[in-house]
Design a protein that fits this description.
Elements: E1 30-34, E2 42-48, E3 51-62, E4 75-82, H1 97-113, E5 122-132, H2 137-151, E6 162-168, E7 171-174, H3 178-183, E8 186-193, E9 198-202, E10 205-206, H4 210-242, H5 250-257
Parallel strand pairs: 4-5
Antiparallel strand pairs: 1-2, 2-3, 3-5, 6-7, 6-8, 8-9, 8-10
Bound molecules: adenosine-5'-diphosphate.
């Protein structure tokens, strides 16, 4: 955020287009697959622009460490991890401040959406692996994790779509990519359930006026609605393949089991 813009670089051109050709209110191309891992109880793969993210879910299962066990409900233990090869310079492996923070906020959003009281004393373990990062990974990670929880058959209020909006070159834009995140002025990640209007995650990095903030929230809500439809479609595809309703797609179903 707010690094100096390299000489000659324009984040928004005279036609209002961004570096990757998008308009201000456009998401990056998004793709979601549900049930991509065989060993996990539930899983999902998300590509959002150049982000590539896998999420795996286990549980509800016996809670370890034991002292975290809650006799009245399940807990969610979320582990967000950026792999060494996910960024330009090798990222030092293992947890750091940033991954601890993201694990916490993503885990809390998931806890809110899951009917935890149905599974006392258990843990729902969520692993998010960022294979390739290009800004917006906490949102894409939560988007993936929520599909993986649904894929695991864990009862939940709703899917959680998430995306960021922010400000670059004095313009409020949707879904910042890496250059926009580096050289822009603000980044506002949002997780929002379109059906109920609930906000499950909201952060802000940088500065916005009240009017810009309102516009950013409006854009991010629109983005979440689009992502929500893609999440639903991913689950529908997986279960129609599993139920053999998808004539020509058996090949794909076998691929998913590998
Ligand atoms: P988010 O990925 O949710 O936008 P941040 O704003 O903290 O979270 O990070 C923005 C982007 O910066 C990441 O998506 C990634 O591309 C890059 N990044 C984060 N941490 C590192 C790191 N340790 N080394 C290199 N790039 C990083």
């Amino acid at each position: 955020m707010s690094m100096d813009l390299p000489e000659g670089m324009k984040l928004i051109d005279e036609n209002g287009r961004r570096l990757d050709g998008r308009k201000a209110d456009e998401l990056r191309p998004i793709r979601i697959e549900a049930g991509v891992l065989r060993r996990a109880d539930g899983s999902a793969y998300v590509e959002m622009g150049k982000n590539k993210i896998l999420a795996a879910v286990y549980g509800p299962r016996e809670c370890h460490p034991r002292h975290l066990q809650d006799p009245t409900r399940a807990i969610v233990q979320c582990h967000y991890n950026m792999l060494s090869f996910s960024v330009d310079d090798r990222k030092r492996p293992g947890p750091d401040r940033r991954s601890v923070e993201i694990s916490k906020i993503v885990g809390e959003a998931l806890e809110y959406s899951i009917f935890l009281e149905q599974f006392p004393r258990t843990s729902i373990d969520v692993y998010i692996a960022v294979l390739q990062a290009n800004a917006g990974t906490r949102c894409a990670g939560l988007t993936a994790a929520s599909v993986a929880v649904a894929d695991a058959g864990i009862p939940m209020r709703d899917l959680i779509p998430a995306c960021a909006a922010g400000k670059v070159a004095d313009t409020v834009v949707l879904d910042l990519n890496k250059e926009e995140d580096n050289f822009g002025d603000a980044d506002v990640p949002l997780a929002y359930i379109p059906r109920t209007g609930e906000v499950l995650l909201l952060q802000m990095d940088g500065h916005l006026t009240q009017a810009e903030f309102n516009r950013a929230i409006e854009l991010a809500k629109g983005g979440c609605s689009q992502i929500y439809a893609v999440q639903q479609d991913a689950l529908r595809r997986k279960y129609s393949i599993a139920a053999g309703e998808n004539g020509g797609k058996e090949e794909e179903a076998r691929g998913n089991e590998a």
